[in-house]
């Protein structure tokens, strides 16, 4: 199984692929003048990756609401809800992994910025247990991360810019991968654009935008002149998730479209000049004879609580059952955990990054979806670091019960000590405990041991030779003495 999707073809007709796993870690910037095909590109990216990853779309023009018809996205019309309700929905979205489109077209610009800021901040501030991977697509990003305040208040610009900066600069550790699209690079805040490592540059004419595009693509200014000549729907692509050298891409077809469709030529109605003058210059009261406008067919907005219940029940919110049953899943989980621990090396990635790696390895072994959610993976990974790969092994039951008073981030170092005590092995050294704790500071290891002693889960002893042993009272066992 692959995590790559096709967004189109190059000049030779070969498919141009985007590695979605790499995209989650490196983010994407799309740039092009109005009419260059940015929305079509975003739609292609969303459609192709809909089955692979959760998607959250910030849609200022209501262009992407049709994704709900084909792919089951939940559409939230921001004009129907207040700030508190929008924030609660964002928290539910992260919890239930629902793919949504936040439609802002019913709001004025300043209200759009404040609503987007509230929504993105709530996504960013979700509890650690809900840091699942998600693509966050922001169309017309120059509106939400402008270089200058323009016609909006400083407060609205500050809130919106801070939320966009958090998304692009710090969102990766929380599983949020920003995909931002803009008409004008010169109008987009540099600290937001600079965090993207993948680029898709469409047609642009202004020298200042071409200069910034050339800098981002690593091209000379004369080479960047070709950006002026790009046809609609063609983009220059570059980045670790796409290709290592700039390549021209013709974006492929899509299944959905905007509700309004594409505007084409429409001749004006044929009418006698006198008739048009009578219609345009009707006297007072004569307009009452005109037929009334038909009532709006839009359904009434859902109450916030009902929409949040729909988010929790949406099919995309809860992953389908894995293709294999539990008895078959467990050997795969054990094998994948062994591989991850063996490949760790000296560095210790974040748990959310390791969870993404866990999902990829499970798919490579035949599981359509990871059999563990993030909290369960965190517990199993802590056990795996201590060499306890099989959670069903009865030998580890007493150790897990002894660890119950500890915070979850201390589980791995405690289990490392507990296993050494159970097997009569030497006490783990500071380096091993630090690695299991996710730190490189000896001081933090000492504070960790002191804290566990205060809770009564361990008893540490140091002999006159400076060798340390650690006992686990609930197990009635102790490690052998060893150099710290």
UniProtKB/TrEMBL annotation:
<dbReference type="InterPro" id="IPR014588">
    <property type="entry name" value="ATPase_Atu1862_pred"/>
</dbReference>
<dbReference type="Pfam" id="PF01935">
    <property type="entry name" value="DUF87"/>
</dbReference>
<dbReference type="InterPro" id="IPR027417">
    <property type="entry name" value="P-loop_NTPase"/>
</dbReference>
<dbReference type="InterPro" id="IPR002789">
    <property type="entry name" value="HerA_central"/>
</dbReference>
<protein>
    <recommendedName>
        <fullName>AAA+ ATPase domain-containing protein</fullName>
    </recommendedName>
</protein>
<dbReference type="InterPro" id="IPR003593">
    <property type="entry name" value="AAA+_ATPase"/>
</dbReference>
<feature type="region of interest" description="Disordered">
    <location>
        <begin position="284"/>
        <end position="303"/>
    </location>
</feature>
<feature type="compositionally biased region" description="Pro residues">
    <location>
        <begin position="291"/>
        <end position="303"/>
    </location>
</feature>
<feature type="domain" description="AAA+ ATPase">
    <location>
        <begin position="24"/>
        <end position="214"/>
    </location>
</feature>
<dbReference type="InterPro" id="IPR008571">
    <property type="entry name" value="HerA-like"/>
</dbReference>
